[in-house]
Write a structure and sequence with these properties.
alpha/beta, Rossmann fold, eight-stranded parallel beta sheet, 11 helices, ODC_N
């Protein structure tokens, strides 16, 4: 029997603190070699695409796939589903609504902040006010005693509205500003989340001593100069980053880490993974002066870890509908 779970049901059993713990365990498993991963894939059509991420993780190991449409010219949230299988016998354990993409991003960046930001970090420079920005910002604010956030996005009305809304929700000063440089000046944490094809963050924008740069948008949003200036570059999954592509702009050279590796300016062996840090295999921040760049690696086995936790918690609470596909 397969457990069918609706959007309302899955939301009852997954929140940010739970997601953070689930993803720490997934990161540790990744470091121990107990994860099977594939880079995200996209079936591209003229104006729409079908995005698929998959992986296997856990004990007992569960494998799965998250599938959903993606818009070429829009960032609108579209319905996403996940199928979860038992690795041992191939049984389809659950088919569920999966509205947790933004939550996974927020939880991942919360972990990166917890392990790599300066302990005394008090300011955030935020670039981008898209649909994932508010939740991601709240997750980061929960990890440090943040006193001020400066937000820049292209539309003045949008960044102003975002600042007013999020400031009231978080109880933190959120100030809209008119440039990237103003947003990031002296910030101990720089958070970037945009769909920009051209870099919006350059090395001369990162002026805070020992800053942590967090990127969760299109890889091209962070210029290669930032990675070259960093003391450390960390990603969620090197395999994911090495396999990244834009389905509508293939081989455009816009992924800075891929470009730097191809040019022998920053090898993949110099790039670390989040699980190496959460598991203690390598140290986290080593000084208040260390400049660290972290790139979120867009789901995969991380999503399957969340889907597996949702399945366990939903079954424990008697949620969902049992269904026999025959």
């Amino acid at each position: 029997m397969t457990l069918l779970l609706t959007r309302d049901e899955v939301r009852q059993v997954m929140d940010l603190p739970t997601a953070v713990q689930v993803l720490i365990e997934a990161a540790d498993a990744h470091a121990a070699g107990n994860v099977d991963a594939l880079p995200p894939a996209m079936l591209a059509m003229e104006s729409r695409g079908l995005r698929m991420v998959s992986g296997a993780v856990g004990a007992p190991k569960r494998m799965g796939v998250r599938v959903g449409p993606a818009g070429r010219f829009t960032t609108a949230t579209l319905p996403v589903t996940a199928n979860l299988y038992n690795e041992a016998d191939g049984q389809l354990l659950a088919s569920m609504a999966y509205p947790f993409g933004p939550l996974r991003i927020a939880a991942t960046l919360a972990i990166a902040t917890r392990t790599m930001a300066r302990p005394d970090a008090a300011s955030i420079g935020l670039i981008g006010s898209g649909s994932n920005a508010a939740l991601t910002l709240s997750a980061i604010v929960a990890e440090r005693s943040i006193k001020e956030v400066r937000i820049f996005s292209r539309a003045e009305a949008g960044r102003t509205a975002f600042a007013e809304k999020v400031s009231a929700e978080l109880g933190v000063s959120v100030v809209p500003v008119s440039s990237v440089a103003h947003a990031t000046e002296g910030a101990e944490i720089v958070l970037v989340g945009t769909p920009s094809i051209e870099p919006v963050l350059h090395a001369d924008h990162v002026t805070g001593e020992g800053a942590l740069v967090l990127s969760y948008g299109r890889p091209s949003e962070v210029d290669h100069s930032v990675h070259l200036a960093a003391d450390r570059v960390v990603v969620g999954s090197k395999l994911h980053e090495q396999g990244w592509y834009d389905a509508w702009r293939r081989n455009d050279g816009s992924h800075p880490l891929m470009r730097l590796a191809e040019e022998d300016r920053l090898g993949w062996d110099a790039v670390q993974e989040l699980g190496d840090i959460t598991s203690g295999r390598i140290p986290s921040r080593t000084s208040d002066q260390e400049l660290i760049v972290f790139k979120d690696s867009e789901g995969g086995f991380w999503d399957i870890a969340i889907a597996s936790a949702v399945y366990e918690r939903a079954r424990a609470r008697g949620l969902g509908t049992e269904f026999d596909f025959g």
